[in-house]
Specification:
Radius of gyration: 14 Å
Strand order of the largest sheet: 1-7-6-2-5-4-3
CATH superfamily: P-loop containing nucleotide triphosphate hydrolases
Helix content: 25-40%
Number of helices: 4
Strand content: 15-25%
Shape: globular
Number of strands: 7
CATH class: Alpha Beta
Order of helices and strands: EHEHEEHEEEH
Low-confidence stretches: none
Bound molecules: adenosine-5'-diphosphate, magnesium ion
Number of domains: 1
Structural class: alpha/beta
CATH topology: Rossmann fold
Length: 158
């Protein structure tokens, strides 16, 4: 279930999307799961690039077109980047792997196209809903039950 509490963030350009990912990652705790929803091209991978930067991971985050799962382990926390785009179903073995990353990996996870995840894997997750605006920018709605996440999402801290 998507948490009711949310913060709305205007993202005028690519750099703003990245900066949101950075802020969120700096406040992230081990075991945090971020579910990123939004159309193709709405900025989900850009957010994850920002997250890697916020964790001070040196690797470049790529859009995993054929790879469904990438790990970045050089930062403050391991970052698990999962992209379920075009997947029709999740095999049981892969589900076990995902569960391990998300809950026992000791890092933060970011999942693009999370609609396929079974509900028990999304319990306690934070949601970032991206929308493309007619002017070309984006908006993000960050939904979370954790005040630290909502505060981190704000471009201007409270
Ligand atoms: N706030 C923004 N305003 C305009 N363009 C953006 C913004 N955020 C990201 N982009 C651009 O949108 C394109 C698609 O971004 P990407 O992160 O790959 O989307 P997705 O992973 O959701 O498909 C990239 O060229 C990226 O630079
Ligand atoms: Mg993407």
């Amino acid at each position: 279930m998507i948490p009711d509490a949310s913060v709305q963030v205007e993202l005028a350009d690519h750099a703003a999307t990245r900066a949101l990912g950075e802020r969120v990652a700096r406040a992230a705790l081990p075991g945090d799961v971020y579910l990123l929803t939004g159309d193709l091209g709405s900025g989900k991978t850009t957010l994850v690039q920002g997250m890697a930067r916020g964790l001070d991971a040196v690797d470049d985050v790529s859009s995993p077109t054929f790879v469904i799962q990438n790990q970045y382990r050089t930062g403050r926390l391991p970052l698990f980047h999962i992209d379920l785009y075009r997947l029709e179903r999740i095999e049981a073995a892969f589900l076990d792997e995902l569960e391990e990353d998300l809950f026992d990996g000791g890092g933060m996870s970011a999942v693009e196209w999370p609609e396929l995840l079974p509900e028990d894997l999304t319990t306690g997750a934070h949601w970032i809903v991206l929308r493309t605006c007619p002017d070309g920018g984006r908006t993000a709605a960050v939904h979370s039950a954790a005040v630290r996440v909502l505060n981190a999402a704000r471009a201007t801290p409270p």
